[in-house]
Amino acid sequence: MRASPRFYLLVGIPGSGKSTYARRHLGQALRLSLDDLRLMLTGVAYDSRYESIVIGVGHAALDYMLSRAATWQRDILLDATNATRERRKHYLQLAERHGLPTVAVFLDCPLEMALARDRARPGGVGDEVVTRYFAQLQPPTAEEGFAELIHVTDCGA
Q1: Is residue 157 part of a domain?
Q2: How far apart are CA 131 and CA 61, in angstroms?
Q3: pTM for this model (two decimals)
Q4: Could you tell me the residue range of the domain that residue 76 belongs to?
């Protein structure tokens, strides 16, 4: 591991392969998954009624993890859609406050592939949610303040 921990921020629509990529390529990082939190807290993959709870718990956990990353000497990874610049802005500011460089990992996946994957998994979020995130998706840019951008076009990786 490098001397200074990093914060990896995954970006991609549901079904784009974010969790799979994280497990295969960033397994050294401590991973916080909003999908896992949703299931743990509510028992369902997605229900808009509970999103404020999921986000609140996720933010508190992430803040703590980022604050301890240097002591633990561990990279931190947020596994969530992070589809908009506005959503990412908060996380970039949080990482900066804790002195961690942020790396965006953009899973650039075609809509049809993501829809097929979501339909195939138990408890998927549904076509409407996947399509909505696809419409909202703003690819990350260096201008947002990322130390590095990783653009993944092989969504099967």
Answers
A1: no
A2: 28
A3: 0.93
A4: 7-152
